[in-house]
Amino acid sequence: MIKIKRQLSKRQRFLIVSAIVFFISLAFPYLYSSYGIFTIIGFISLLYPLTWIALKENINGVEYFTLFILPILFALSINLFIQILPDRKLFRLPLLALIPVGMYILFLTENIFNVAAIRTIQLLRAAHAVSYLMTLLTAFFIISFLISLHQGIIFDLITITGTVFPLTIQFLWSFDLISKFTPRTVLYSLAVCLVFAQITMLVNFYPQSVAMISLFMVSVYYVLLGILQHFYEKKLTRKPTIEYAIVAIIVFLIMIATASWFG
User: Fold this and answer.
1) Which of 69, 85, 182, 208 could form a disulfide with 212 if both were Cys (CB 3.0 to 4.6 A apart)?
2) DSSP code of residue 180
């Protein structure tokens, strides 16, 4: 008798791993309250092999970093953001529900990038749009958490730029889709980090709420990534540049108008 070994399809693996990450996330608040930073390290250590199980085919070179960073940081960002929310199910349950949905979508997106590195694929444009949105969302959640800790300017500089760099380099790499980082991708990622370092120093002395500061920083990130995306796609013309400049000006004016200089 011939035994037929049935392997799970990619989509089945995506569903199973997404569900596992969700159940792990249910325990995250309790572990974090007791073990702090060690919970974060353990969470990342678990998510890396789980992500590999989901995306294991044809991974080469820097893809062992670029394909993994957004799913891992997305799940981590939501779990960290939940820590600063009021202890009510009304606030936490929708975010927890977002984890399996978001992970499944990200696995599909990263799989498109993985396949597109080998051959042309129609869904690449849609994958870039999803990656853009999820990168911004992840940045917002993590930056909000880091700022809420109120650990001082040095801590914020290290942690925020340390978050922005991997998010940026994986986003820009998705337009190259080769097995190594190009010099321009590294350079532009460092340039974005430099901008964020300057903004981080500025907002540490600015009288604003955590939510407004986070929105401001992510709005700047939206503009920077948007301009870089148009540049990589060779579509950076006067029109999108003006549109992004208008967004930046509006956000800056809102920050000034809502500041609490006198308590």
Assistant:
1) 208
2) S
All residues at 6 or more sequence positions from 142 whose CB lies less than 8 Å from its CB, including other chains: 73, 76, 77, 80, 81, 163
Judge contact between 144 and 214, C-beta under 8 A.
Answer: yes
Is residue 103 within 8 Å of residue 25, measured between CB atoms?
no
Domain boundaries defined on the chain: 10-185
- Structure token pair of residue 240: 């999108």
- Asked if residues 61 and 180 have their Cβ atoms less than 8 Å apart, the reply is yes
**Is there a contact between 75 and 106 (Cβ–Cβ < 8 Å)?**
no
> Could you tell me which of 62, 81, 69, 80 has the C-alpha nearest to residue 109?
69
Q: At what angle do helices 210-232 and 238-257 cross, to 10 degrees?
A: 170
Q: Which two tokens stand for residue 121?
A: 């694929």
Is the distance from CB of 106 to CB of 71 less than 8 angstroms?
yes
Residues 6+ apart with CB under 8 A from 249: none
Using CA atoms, how far apart are residues 229 and 132, in angstroms rounded to an integer? Answer: 9
Q: Per residue of the chain (263 residues), give pLDDT as tens.
A: 344 456 788 889 999 999 999 999 999 988 988 888 999 999 999 999 999 999 988 888 899 999 999 999 999 999 999 988 877 666 788 888 999 999 999 999 999 999 988 887 888 999 999 999 999 999 999 999 999 998 889 999 999 999 999 999 999 999 999 889 999 999 999 999 999 999 988 887 776 778 888 888 999 999 999 999 999 988 888 888 888 888 888 887 887 777 665 55
